[in-house]
Amino acid sequence: MIHRKNYLDALRGIAIFFVVFGHVTHIMEIRTYILGFHIPIFFFISGLLFAPEKYKNFRQFFVKKFKSLMVPYCFFYLITFLYWLAIERKIRGGVSPGSQLLGLFYGTYNMKYMFFNGALWFLPCLFTTEILYFWICKIPAVLGRTFILQGSFLLGILLLQFGISWLPWGANAALFACVFYGTGHCLKNKMSYLENISWTYFIIIIAVCGTLQILLLDYTFADLASLNINYYFYVPIAIIGIMLYLSLSLIIKKNKLLEFLGINSLVIFAFQEQTYRAVIFLFAKFSGWETGLVRENFWFCILISVTTILVITPLILGYNRFIKPLLL
Fold this sequence. Notes:
The chain is mainly α. It has one domain. It contains 15 helices and no strands. It is globular, with a radius of gyration of 19 Å. The two termini are about 20 Å apart.
């Protein structure tokens, strides 16, 4: 995958909008639906783009991924921590600044170490997932890799059963995320075929997957950040969602707005929590609605999600122009 795939940027754009909307809304049916697949999509896309042949050795791979994921993570963590310390701490107390600063090194959304900006858990987890899969992909046979990925999922369950949910850098969640990352990598060589088949097949896939999502909604709720997942249905339900929106993105192929969101999903991830909380507060203040009622209204949640992204857009432009060249 030498050339940039516009539809993957669009798919990432769809997923990041779902992330924002899923955090904004308190409509449980919608939130449950979104949580079933929105984060797995990001791991799946990363697996599709995984190219170990680009790296001479593990050290080069590690350094590259550390710079592209962990260095921005540290920047976003410190910036949003200072914002919380100066502004939100007065409103959203309950945790000490020391514990939140410790979370920078801990890198796992657990025991309120990322209370001020929980969405940042994703970056260390993706980094850990990439490191784990670098070694898993050394197994040449697809069947062998599949067996190891199943073992990774089972190990994740086993650790939780023994009360071990505190591993640093999102390692617990990474054991589950490897399944989606590996699925993307295994499908990588098939993408050229999928890119050229008729859109009517994708319509069928969307219809089938959409129907399955509705039928399985009662089994869908999942939160990988807090390791609250349905052991039996999490992977199949997430794969169904991935296939639905991958098919949709292959139909769309190009969309400047979705591609913009997808390319800049990292910045949206980092700043969405502080932004949507401020937008919800202002919306409730000027509308006269209680915050809880605002977050239970579908159209208000759409409007707040769109507004949140619009507010973040200048931050995206500033980050890309001034900060990103310095970090990378």
